[in-house]
DNA sequence: GCTGGAGCGTCGT
DNA sequence: CGCTCCAGC
């Protein structure tokens, strides 16, 4: 079913594109779509019970295409049926059985063409078929995951949590689950239709600042969805009209006015319909999914306290943890829970997982598996750093900035390159983070904590993002509604009216998001052999001790104090680029916006350090103090001479380590520019990453400069203001 | 102009 | 599962 006519309805929010734009990224695939189409090539054999692997070969063609674009595929499969869909599934099964009987009968009579047609319609994708594909994928180190219930919710989780950059499917429902990006109708060449959540307001004909995912969800449910048939005469257009007119944030109550708003006096909205509507909303928002990183069943979004267990029952119920894992791995039948396979991700050979390149000859995917402990580790690190906003792996403590790169390096391993659009919080989410008083506070909310994993194992989506749908952690007891949308709150409210946060340069302020772990505040080994530190005293000192390569044991000492002598390395703002081939150190002084270069000596052997960009945000402290205590210092690029595939640009690392800063880049763009411009920007960024090896140093530096400027403007945009000297008063802007 | 049901195609050779 | 067509309101 899906949402009838949703794809054409979303035309304004979609664009033709090729999957290659997600090169070096990760895609999550609704495997059912491929299997279902693949079955057509061998429907007769299957209906006759003859063995065939044609459908597996069909799916592998797509997978190989993705691998050839250096894309990591994650195949997602359906699990058990939701209670809400039990009726639908029953009807489908009956229909298939009917077609099968008729087909056999026609075949017997001799009407082969007609019989074939019916038999094709009688084939359903079984878990055994899925398992054949899963086994084939596991041979190639391609990740698979079986959802506890619907693949849709699982796919959305992978997308929202940042594990996958985009979802490939044919089912328009994915947008309702909150996916950021969905690629529909992808063909074997990789061409498809990309629907971007950030553009949904265009289809809704609502200004982006008033758009909320809740409204979009309500509209789609009203027009009829898998969990609730539509009221007679209500389609997407009527539903949109109602949502646009409605100002009542309690949708349960608002629905009573549906008839009068749409001039459909005969329309009767029963309480049963309104209750079912809320259940449908809950099923979309809080469906049970499996987090591969913590290996537990969790919910797509954290349920608010006003949602009862009875209501959550419709969104799926947990099973015991061991079975849940086996189900997710595809080892057992979702319905009978009978064991059919014995895949154990912990037995995967480490060398396959650790390696991060593609070996074309073997066709073996060398991506890090989501089931790998190492992937889990990296995600946790990323998440911890994200949580504390230790985004750049730099910190400034007691006049000493310490560079810690081992984490950064791991992040590079994990996300070789990020698609800049993929990881971004949208503008409203950022705003919500700053203005929200309770929903974001996952850790302090006992109700939510009950439903979320322990602190060590909190899923990325739960920590990094707040529930994208819920606007409040509602404490009202009026209805099971997902009550208020932010629409009303946003009305007439301009960013500039938000009370600004004063940044006090005199104290080290550690935000929940940007602070660094205390344990990390010392010299920390970059690698096994390297220690690198930056100290802020009267002059910036960048010191590199004991640079050794692993293989040849060459020592490469670079004392950057040299740079200070000619004032080339400014305290407040600089960028260093080491070109080892030419023994040259490039320096960009951002205050002067000039570049200088300096030759240095190094051993003839290969050093591991190939490119080091250090950027210090001068504007934050631009009133001057010679002290550098509070410089917002950030490592923006560190490239290792390992493999060309690892060469990561500053922009890429910004994203993998600093979701907020990189995200805000697009916030500014998207809020000020047209869709066309935005697309242009993103394609530029993709282009640059594809040709990153050929990229000139000056391009890198100019990007970096832009990055710093962007951060400053964003500080202002999001309500931060530098504290005025000798003034403690907080003024409203 | 919008809704909604019926009927068709999905692969591959 | 989506798409197209078309009758009906």
In short:
It is an enzyme of class 3 (hydrolase). By secondary structure, the chain is of the alpha/beta class. It is 37% helix and 14% strand.
Task: Describe it.
This protein has 733 residues and is of the alpha/beta class. It contains 28 helices and 20 strands. The strands form six sheets. The protein has a seven-stranded mixed β-sheet, sandwiched between helices. Strands 10-11-13-14 form a four-stranded antiparallel β-sheet, with no helix packed on it. Helix 4 crosses helix 7 and helix 5 (86-109) packs antiparallel against helix 6 (112-122). The longest helix is centred in the first third of the chain and has 24 residues, at 86-109. It starts with 5 loop residues before the first helix and ends in an 11-residue tail after the last strand. The relative contact order is 0.10. The structure holds a DNA duplex (13 and 9 nucleotides).
How many DSSP E strands? Answer: 20
Q: Could you describe the largest sheet, including whether it forms a barrel?
A: 7 strands, mixed
- Separation of termini? 51 Å
Helix content: 25-40%
Q: What fraction of the residues are assigned to beta strands by DSSP?
A: 5-15%
Q: How many distinct helices?
A: 28
What's the mean pLDDT score? Answer: 63
- Low-pLDDT parts are 353-361, 386-733
**Shape label:** globular
Q: What's the alpha carbon Rg, rounded to whole Å?
A: 27 Å
Alpha-beta content class = alpha/beta
Strand order of the largest sheet: 1-7-6-5-2-3-4
């Amino acid at each position: 079913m899906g949402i009838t006519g949703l794809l054409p309805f979303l035309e304004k929010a979609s664009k033709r594109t090729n999957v290659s734009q997600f090169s070096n990224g990760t895609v999550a695939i609704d495997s059912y779509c491929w299997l279902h189409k693949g079955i057509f090539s061998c429907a007769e054999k299957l209906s006759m019970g003859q063995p065939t692997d044609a459908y597996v070969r069909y799916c592998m063609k797509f997978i190989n295409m993705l691998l050839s674009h250096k894309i990591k595929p994650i195949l997602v499969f359906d699990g058990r049926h939701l209670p809400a869909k039990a009726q639908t599934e029953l009807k489908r099964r009956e229909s298939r059985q009917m077609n099968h009987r008729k087909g056999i009968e026609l075949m017997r009579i001799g009407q082969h063409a007609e019989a074939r047609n019916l038999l094709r319609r009688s084939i359903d994708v079984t878990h055994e078929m899925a398992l054949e594909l899963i086994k084939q994928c596991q041979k190639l180190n391609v990740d698979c995951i079986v959802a506890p219930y619907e693949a849709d919710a699982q796919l959305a989780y992978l997308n929202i949590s940042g594990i996958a950059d985009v979802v490939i499917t044919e089912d328009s429902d994915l947008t309702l689950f909150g996916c950021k990006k969905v690629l529909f109708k992808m063909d074997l060449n990789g061409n498809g239709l990309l629907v971007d959540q950030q553009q949904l307001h265009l289809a809704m004909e609502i200004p982006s600042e008033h758009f909320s995912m809740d409204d979009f969800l309500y509209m789609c449910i009203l027009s009829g969805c898998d969990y609730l048939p539509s009221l007679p005469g209500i389609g997407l257009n009527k539903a949109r009209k109602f949502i646009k007119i409605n100002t009542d944030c309690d949708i349960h109550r608002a629905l009573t006015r549906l008839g009068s708003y749409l001039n459909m006096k005969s329309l009767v909205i029963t309480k049963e319909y309104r209750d079912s509507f809320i259940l449908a909303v809950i099923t979309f928002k809080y469906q049970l999914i499996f987090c591969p990183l913590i290996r537990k069943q969790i919910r797509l979004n954290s349920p608010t306290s006003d949602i009862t267990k009875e209501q959550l029952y419709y969104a799926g119920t947990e099973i015991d943890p061991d079975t849940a894992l086996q189900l997710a791995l595809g080892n057992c039948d979702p319905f009978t829970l009978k064991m059919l396979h014995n895949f154990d991700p912990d037995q995967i050979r480490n060398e396959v997982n650790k390696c991060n390149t593609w070996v074309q000859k073997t066709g073996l995917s060398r991506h890090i598996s989501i089931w790998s402990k190492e992937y889990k580790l990296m995600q946790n690190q990323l998440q911890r750093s994200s949580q504390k906003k230790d985004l750049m792996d730099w910190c400034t403590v007691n006049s000493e900035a310490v560079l810690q790169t081992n984490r950064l390096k791991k992040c590079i391993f994990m996300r070789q390159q990020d698609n800049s659009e993929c990881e971004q919080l949208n503008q409203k989410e950022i705003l919500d983070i700053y203005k929200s008083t309770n929903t974001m506070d996952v850790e302090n909310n006992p109700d939510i904590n009950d439903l979320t994993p322990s602190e060590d194992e909190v899923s990325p989506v739960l920590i990094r993002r707040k529930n994208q749908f819920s606007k409040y952690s509602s404490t009202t007891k009026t209805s099971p509604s997902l009550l208020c949308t932010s629409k009303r709150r946003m009305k007439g409210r301009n960013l500039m009216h938000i009370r600004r946060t004063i940044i006090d340069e005199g104290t080290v302020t550690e935000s929940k998001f940007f602070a660094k772990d205390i344990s990390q505040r010392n010299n920390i080994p970059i690698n096994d052999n390297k220690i690198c530190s930056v100290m802020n005293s009267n002059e910036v000192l960048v010191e590199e001790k004991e640079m050794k390569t692993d293989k040849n044991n060459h020592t490469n000492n670079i004392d950057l104090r040299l740079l200070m002598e000619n004032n080339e390395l400014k305290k407040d703002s600089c960028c260093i680029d080491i070109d080892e081939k030419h023994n040259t150190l490039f320096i960009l002084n951002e205050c002067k916006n000039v570049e200088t270069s300096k030759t240095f000596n190094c051993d003839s052997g290969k050093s591991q350090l190939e490119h080091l960009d250090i950027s210090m945000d001068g504007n934050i402290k631009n009133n001057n103090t010679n002290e550098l205590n509070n410089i917002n210092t950030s490592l923006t690029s560190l490239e290792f001479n390992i493999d060309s595939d690892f060469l990561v640009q500053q922009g890429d690392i910004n994203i993998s380590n600093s979701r907020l800063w990189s995200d805000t880049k697009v916030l500014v763009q998207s809020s000020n520019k047209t869709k066309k411009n935005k697309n242009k920007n993103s394609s530029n960024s993709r282009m640059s990453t594809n040709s990153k090896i050929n990229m000139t140093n000056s391009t890198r530096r100019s990007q970096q400069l832009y990055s710093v400027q962007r951060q400053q403007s964003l500080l202002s945009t999001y309500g931060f203001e530098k504290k005025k000297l000798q003034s403690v008063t907080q003024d409203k802007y």
